[in-house]
Design a protein that fits this description.
The complex is a heterodimer of chains A (1033) and B (468). With 1033 residues, chain A is mainly beta. Helices cover 7% and strands 47% of the residues of chain A. In chain B, β5 (323-326) and β6 form a beta hairpin. Classes of the chains: A mainly beta (1033), B mainly alpha (468).
Chain lengths: 1033, 468
Amino acid sequence: MKRFYNAFLVVLFISLASASLAQTVSGKVLDENKLPTPGVVVKDVKTGAGVVTDINGTYSLKLTAGVHKIEISFIGYQTIIKDVTLSDGQTTTLDISLLPDEALTDEVIVVGYGVQRKREVTGSISKIDGKELTKMPVPSFEAALQGQAAGVQVTQGSGLAGSASTIRIRGIASVSAGGDPLYVVDGIPITQGYFLNGNRGAMNNNPLATINPNDIESIEVLKDAAATGIYGSRGANGVILITTKRGKTKGLKVDFTTRLGIAQAASLPNMMNTDQYLAMRQEAWENDGGTGYVWLPERSKATESAAVREAAFMEAKKTNTDWVKETVGTGLKQTYSLGMSYGFKKSNLYAGLTYDDNGSYLIGNSYRRTSARLNYDASIGDKIKIMTSTSYSNGQNRRVDAAWSGGLGLAMSTALPYFPVKAEVPDSTLSHDYYFWNGGTNPSAKLANITMRTIENRLITSGSVIYTPIKNLNIKASGAIDHMDFADFYYEPYRFYLNTPNDVTAGKSETRPSKTLNWNSSFTADYNFTRSENHNFTFLAGAEVQKQVTKRKDRIAYTNVAGPSYSRDYETPNTLVQEFSANPDVWTFVSTFARVNYNFKQKYFVQAVSRLDGSSKFGANNKYGFFPSLSAGWILSEEKFLKDNKTFSFLKLRMGVGRSGNSDIPGDSQYGTYSNTDNGNSYNNQLTTYPLKLANPNLRWETTATIDIALEGGLWNDRITYTLSAYQKNTKDALMDVSLPPSTGFPSYWDNVAKIRNRGIEFEFTSYNVVKKNFEWSSKFNISINKNVLLDIGDYTPDAVKGGTNDSRVIPGQAVGSFFMMKFSHVDPATGRPVYIDRNGNETFDYENGQRQFVGSGIPKVIGGLTNTLRYKNFDLQFLFTYSFGSKIFDSSGKRQMGVVTDWNMRTDAFDRWRQPGDEATLPRKTLDETNYDLPSGFPWWNTSLFVYKADYVRLRNLTLGYMFNLKKTSKITNLKVAFNVSNLFVITNFPGLDPEVARDFENAQDRNLSPNVTYLTPPQERSYNITLNASF
Amino acid sequence: MKKYAYIIFVLTLTGMVSCKKWLEVPPEDVVLAEDALNTAQDAQRVLNSCYDALGNTFDGDVQNLAELLSDNLTEPLNNLELQAVYGRDVNIFNTTITKIYTDLYQVVFRANTLLARLESISDLSASEKTRIEGECHFLRGFCHWWVLKIWAQPYGYTADNSHLGIVIREEASNLPIPRSTVAQCYTFILNEFNLAHDGLPESNDVYANKYAAAGMLSMVNFQKFDYNNARLFAEEVINSDLYSLEPSLDIFHSRDTNYQFSPNPESIFYIESLRVGNFSDYRNEGFRDQYRPGAAGAQLSFSPELYNMMALDQSDQRFQEWFLSANGQYQSLRFGVNAENTFLFDVPLIRLTVLKLIHAEAVAQTGVNLQMAIDEINEIRDRAFAVGTNHIPSGSTADQIIDFARMEFRKETLCEGLWIDQIRRIGASGETYDVRGAPWNCPGMAISFPNTEYTGADFINNPEGGCN
């Protein structure tokens, strides 16, 4: 503020003094987003004469004739110096584009319970501007973090609307406990329940989907212990701090954005048509020794006569349904967002209102979010400031079945091409004319009749009072509530299955409600002081309590319901037929923490952090955990030997060590419990009670010790800024929900077992390659190399913990999330049979589950992103590439689509098979009998490394072309921009399946950790085309 | 200053107490272990839960599994996991099998938990304690026995029975345990039933009593070729005069049309189904749903070989009443012909007919009193045929009696999961017995344990498949 004030006086004085000057340089100053920037100081370096840009970003500076160096400076941006030569009476135009000063000096970073200037930060923190999140439509804001920061692995969700991405920061450090980072919105650790709705319809609940990306000012990703240490027991997997927008400027500023778009599938499965499928089946039949025509599912039986089979075959050939087309279409997207900022004399507010309808390419599927936000800050006198933040969101997910549950998943599996959509001779027991087949519901029929929807209402509100009794001392009391009211609704009319007239609308409904109340209260005090000018201290101390209560019902079912109802009035008069309760999940935290920052001459920095956490989740013997960290930074560029170096404009070395934890397990994990007597079970009409699980009073936090060392620098006046870091994270006592031998009589047991190590290097840079008046080009690049190793799982075997589609296990010496299955060698050219490799490396025809072994890891070794931004006059073009190397993907549906010929349709890739002796083929000979592959009879589920592929890819995640309109100075519109955007335009990969990047539907947190790269009929990501209009007033 | 120190001390103490309370969040809707099992009533309820769990899995599920390993049934209709059992090619991921295996050990877990706590329950009388202990041992032995007979090769498979049996669980624990040998398993199981026999009363409502334990001792000793003890324990039950043969063949239809209680007089131990007012407690779904002719998804029907064997004497009412040749299948009517009469019935687990037939063979094997054996077999045949019309020849030799006893055993125990025991015993005794084209001791006859049993490093599984 002082800087502004001084600049203002200088400008005022100089302006008055030079009133008689006739030469003028004038123009407009724009920020990196081409928005007019008020308050920028434009001055003559020699004389100090200067002006400040007005609300439209324009300035006019009168100068003497001659050569001048004009300096343009603004906080948070790089200072620019331009040469201007003016002749007598000349008036010239000099428009300026500011470049953000990312690195360095004065950028403010949110660090948890406070802010720091970037130069002071001694931990590893990446900051992402909120504007980056709204450049392209994504199912949920976290998806837009992909490729934006080093060490942040974002695996995009599937093509389902609202689907969740998985985020891993510096690798995965957990086995069964939640491996996601802690999300903190405006200081509140929010509810992160991904499994409130289980895995229904092959979709997990996404707790982040209701967060409006338009409200986000910035996101800070805290990566190492020095940064996350202040969150102690919950920081081991990183922390994502979300800061929402607040009122800033005086007066009214309004921002309106609308976006319209369409979504298509980025790739589609190459399923066989009827002729192809029948030919494949016939070949398999003949290979197996069959004669005549092959039997067909739903048409004929193997035991029927040749004539019956032939008739069925010929009948089947008459139909050719493309079931993929029946389930996939074009989704429509529309967003309307209004943001308003107003500054009063001693207070300000930000209000936002957004409606977002994000339709996916799956027919009938969309996620609609309506959200409102009001953030208000006010000062009361000189010593008290209050800050409030309130957001309310309503999310409506119009769900459809996918993957294993139906829809496109059926089109990729048991919806055979010779099945018609509608039956020629309708089933007399049905009241509609859709064709039905055993074991699979016609996806078109289901879409036309059944309604599935989740509705989520979420209120996150917080308030703080900051009292400043003396200079530099702030005492802050905060309270917050995060209330998530979530319900899944399902309606099925009787006419769908039963012989009921079509006009009967009654049916059955099922509701699965869940309410989570999470409240948090903290009390902090911070004080900073300077001694002898060179010694600067900042102290922070605080205490915090948090409680979360989740109550839900597994299922409430009603009969004779007239139609879909989204009421949560569970006392409706309809007949309640079933109600299942789930145990509430309740946990509490209490914490104290302290942070001390010291710097000497703004050159040497030290930070010490400690946090003591107590949690109800852990046993009596380990209730509390202590999480300290120590870090230091040294700004070398402030030393004499670099002080005036033109090349190294900034150079900082920092290092940190510390310990953080993870406690993301169910609240009752430590307890040994028995059922109540109202458990619904009796014998001889006598009450029962029974043990449910054994207690583990020794259950404790999993802890991660981190060491991080980094070099941050700026070159050539920060034209290039970079960060190079190296780290090692050693996790011990990692929590495992051990799958116990069934002979124990109970299924699993939480225990501190595993040791995990993540070790890596990260590098990121920002470069302003060309900065000219009409052309600019800048690049941002990051690369992260991480090696993850599961060091130890105690006395257990890999089968102690499983994930994926029975394909992922914990294997000491390999990455967490490794594929454990029979190793495939080749197809025997003589017989066409698959040849496997046993654990001793010997080739064998025997498929034996006892010989399963490590065949690859789903965790990438290298990830990153590259953003290029080009501007030519009013046009700008931005493209973001993301990439991932070194991981494998298990195509779990491929084993059915390319393996044994069953009642699944197959992919055309299955053509590459053995046909006759001597053939060297990728796939073995076709068969209808799984025992020919030595699979157990009745189990065509062929988990072998044959379907494990390299998942390397480079993806053009985002391509945006924008145009900024020239506006008249008198226009009330201060900014008007239109942009055309394509997301996910192409991906370069050798993976033959749909998408090498997959975040499947998961069963639980453990599955989410262990099997990130397993695809099973998973809908591919979408490609969207969008047009965006942004106007500011 | 002292005053301030005192205030700080009190505040700190209050804070610590508050924190401790704040961090105590026991789960709701359940009972903490330390509060759950402290009274005689608690103990009885845990015991009830053991029977409840037993009833949930002996509703036909376990019996069907054992029956599928024998030659009584044909391949299940389309259930792949049951087909794998029939094919003796069970893999470690078979969820149906895993559930049954887990359910059996769940009873053991509960019984172990109860046994471990009995000493600390103060209001338990000595007699109650003895009874509950006896029931726990019976249940533990019973479940181990059924696991052993499905998941291991039989007694006599190796000369010293050093081949691997099953995991013996004598205490509630989360630790993986390796398999014991079959010899050790027999020792353990017999000891369990002996303890039960010593502790159980002669009468115990619908729960296990002394004669249930005696019945099991007879059956287990019979499998162990200890025909003398098999005979003696069977005689204990037979001579008690508490049980009599069910006059009709309607062993499973002991409920009348109003579902009134009408216990089967020959059931020594059974799973009780119940209807009281509007409350129904079905314990027969595994039979009802898997055999009911025409029922959607019903998987099981008799093998042609069995049908043909039964058809040799069409005057046998068991053939007439239980077999239906329709739609290319030999359906079982043992559990009724429609939904109505398969609605609710008890499931006998130890019954007099079986013990009489075991007794008959044991007598013949030991040569004690052949006429007694002949009479016992004829008593059974009188029920199956018109009385007196189909007796076995008087003066039959021991070997003939044994053959007759085995044939009647097979016919009488259809669907009950007991014939497989005799197949194994016959094979292990040195006689040749092929089960659907594979020897009685082919590898897949001892089915694979679930994969999570591998959690412990020392566990050795059975091979997957290997019979055909």
